[in-house]
Amino acid sequence: MLNLSPLMTAAPVVQLHVAAAMLALTLGPVALFRRRRDRLHKALGYLWIAAMACAALSSFWIHSIRLIGPFGPIHLLSLLTLASLGYGLRAAISGNIPAHRKTMQGLYFFGLALPGVFTLWPGRTMNRVLFDLAPMLAVPVMAILILALLWLGRKRRVQKAARGAAFPLHNPF
């Protein structure tokens, strides 16, 4: 059963972080995986970038795992996310669409979806929201989600390789 009280009583920066991450998670499939690259893609893409930037920036005021002063390993991911957002946007503006696509889709999986799975760890706010009555139930759910993400990534690599095999650059035989 969903229990929103841990989120509603969390610090405002945590609420902002969750809202931005949920918006980015929701917009991602539409903005990043549509076949058509039109005005809707561009508008949703800018909104997705803003949501990702907000989630990454807000993380600097969340200090649940401290390693160096108030900062932890997740803050390195936030820095990488911000740099990748800039790189991906610059790639699109300069017309390097393959780099733009690869960067933004990689950010969706490795900067948002995978870290999102780890927010379900017992004791964390999202664990209390989703698994309030059985916090350890999140562990197998996390395992299933990680396996699903790995499977999706493998499936995309296999599909991409199959497309490349249809038009080989050279024949080694």
TrEMBL record:
Supply the Pfam families for this chain.
Answer: DUF2306
Instruction: Extract the InterPro entries matched here.
Output: DUF2306_membrane
Highest taxon listed in the record's lineage: Bacteria
Signal sequence: where? none
Q: What keywords are annotated for this sequence in UniProt?
A: Membrane, Transmembrane, Transmembrane helix
Name of the molecule in the record = DUF2306 domain-containing protein
Does the record carry Transmembrane as a key word? yes
Its source organism is Pararhodobacter aggregans
Per the UniProt record, which residue ranges are transmembrane?
Answer: 12-32, 44-62, 74-93, 105-121, 133-153
